[in-house]
């Protein structure tokens, strides 16, 4: 394709079409670009292949881009004494392609978004074949600054493709913004729900604390009532019976079989005679227990205030009486 007529200062180059718009029209996306001091452009092959739908970038380069139009980033920058750009995943071993390599990849692409650009490229070839050259029309309004490059009108097919792609991106941005708005609204609703749950938990905790305090006060009041209530006293006006004595003893202590045997023997004597003067051997003979065990049972009855000692008889036997206090 012949270059259109130029009116720049000597030794300076300019581009008839802004390369960013050119690449955007070809791929439908903005792609990273590295511009060399001589004005040549190189693009990461992985970026181009990703936007054009090539899943295997190495195979796509091998199938559609000659060696002359692809290089390693280290080789391209080293030829000009430049260092590898930092950031944005630029690596020394990154495969890069020239502008012609990008066009070759686009021509091999089957995505519908590449069709306007390929149609314009076909029109350029047809025009060159028919007229021998292809000339871009100059824009109606030219830059007024001294030495500014000439502005050319964007080819209609490329301009329409850029407009459609920009509209699609705007729609995508609007949809993304709407989705973000919904997400923020949902997050706010979740936060509000969590706040309400927290308030409910706090109210429940306060109610539980109030209930616990009330129960504690009730317990304290009951304790005070128990302390204020006079202790029951034995009705000394009513003479005891064997049954009442045994019933009282059951309440006073945990009665085992041997203790109960001794209690059944001595209770009638204490009720009828008012005293127990029988030797331990006599009680042991009547209960079938040993003297030592009889003594232990009597000691247990004394410990729980069922009986109390009242000295000893003339023969030295202990004397016991009922404890009715």
TrEMBL record:
InterPro entries: BRO_N_domain (IPR003497). Residues 28-132 form the Bro-N domain. It comes from the Bacteria. This is Bro-N domain-containing protein. It comes from Streptomyces pseudovenezuelae.
